[in-house]
Design goal:
Distance between the termini: 30 Å
Shape: globular
Length: about 625
Amino acid sequence: MAVFYFLWGAGLPIFRRTGRAMADNRTTRAGVGRLLPRIGSPAYHLMLGAVAILILGPLGGISAAFMNFSIGFFIGGQVLAGILGSTVTLPYGPEGRHGANYMQTMAASVAGMCGMAVLMQAMVWLGLPEPPVWKLVLYFMSIGMFGVGVGMLYTPVLVDRMQLAYPSGFAVANILRALTDRNLLKRSIAKLGGGMLAGYAGGLFALKLPALARLGVTQKGIEALTGLSLSASTFGAGLIVGARIAIPALVVALIGKWQTPYLVSIGWLKPGEPFRKIGFIIALGTILGAAILDVALILIQAARQFRQKRGQAASPADDWKRVNVFRLVLWVVFWGAATVFFGSQVLHQPVFFLAVALGLCFLFVLVNGISLGISDWNPISSAFVLTVFILAALGLRDPGVGLLCASILLIACSEGGDMQQDRSTGWRLGTNRIIQFRYQVIGIAMGAVLAVVLGKVFMHSYEVLRVDQFTHPHAEGAQQWQSAMTYKLVGALKGITTSQPQVMQALRFGVLLGLLIEIARKLIKRIPGYQQALKTSARARAGNFVLDAVLLPSPYASSFGGFVELPTVLWWTAGGVGSSVFDLVQARRASRRPQTGDDQLPPDMSTMSLVGGGLIAGDSLAALSVGLHGLARTVL
């Protein structure tokens, strides 16, 4: 508890004190039971912090780590944390939305850091010695603290002045407003709870299939069942994204399966190797190609918005969003220096490459923040890979050095973007930034510890996670643990820092393909007649869906088909198609009956998104339960 209060005060020097004028430091007890602490009191924040750091944060963190190990991407869990956190603040009425926002801020920071547990897996795949836990915790925490500081530097411009949308932040703000309704909250909890129970049961079944051998089931039958029940989390993630995002991955996976013999004939693959061995490089290239165009357009759009608002007189900042820039700069300098110190003196990495990576953070946190604010897309893997390219041009030859130095970009861009998105939510709700910053700082500290612990637990419990899937692509259990994020990072490092001409050829091909696809998509969608047809013709909208899903899918969506194997993509697509069909049927039913206030739900609170989030959480908890049980049996 002493650590909690220390970190609570650690963020204070950055901001000006606002005294009794804090928007949420109210003394009213209207609607609050006598047993609940007063809003703004130390007991109130202790209650919120305990719930966030002991329940919501670990729940989101476990899900994030599990998703990165099993699928290769993670969902921060702001919606889940916001809904569950609102059960605590519901008795406070509308003013409780600030407390729920504090909790989701902390929980999202924990989850974001826990998703970085795959960096430990990447070390194992590269054959690096595993550093002691305390060294990694200090390094990860320093980067996270640096990242939120850099993210906060850009907040007055991106959030306050440019007022970028930050769609997910907007959705969370709407959810927190809506969850002052007890009935709505009850319905949301029921859907989440049902999804979690189903995900937990499905996860236990999938992870315990080898035990069926004792009942006489053949190995081939077990493998068939394993493929059949691959992952509730994969299906749940598909439910969240929908068919327009899920089908493109299937298209790429099928093309890869079809073209594998040709790729073998030209030397890009060896006989028996799966498509993902080279497919992830092509997919990564398509993301980079699309990003080249999108980031350029984003910067142009940002410059236009800045010019439009430049002539407007700046109004005095409200108390709840005042920032002491000098102290914030000191925060950034301190944690940047700490990152270099721990990276060089504790982890023994070259100071030059660490410093270059820190400098690149100021560019990528801004660019990624603008991208996140406009398109809801934070390209952290692109920042990682581009950093490795830059370091290689400056003389980098060691994949291990590249991993630890480029990890600065991976963590800083993730946490910096999260900072800006959370501030956009707070901007809409009027939440005090002093307190919100403190919750995020505590979440990063907790997340750094939990990331390393979860990495150790998962890899100790599931030996397949320690197997380099480049060398052993058909390792037992690899179907359940695709580790696409690790596969992508390690593959990029091996391809860039070693002599593999086919890898660079595939990367260049992917960059060109992604750039051409994105140019074609934007040119088609800018045609006035095309835009008009989408507004008036159902056939045109159907054709637009086919264009997005099959003919010219976005590289950001289709690339998933190159990162994982076909069975995983099939479950992903099944979830996406099922979600879209369900939503379509529900929309048609709704059009035939009178609309009521209860029907007006934010998009992020749809039935499929809630059930999908529950499936992910349940599946991850099942994996952790089985892993902890196996670990306990090994130790005892």
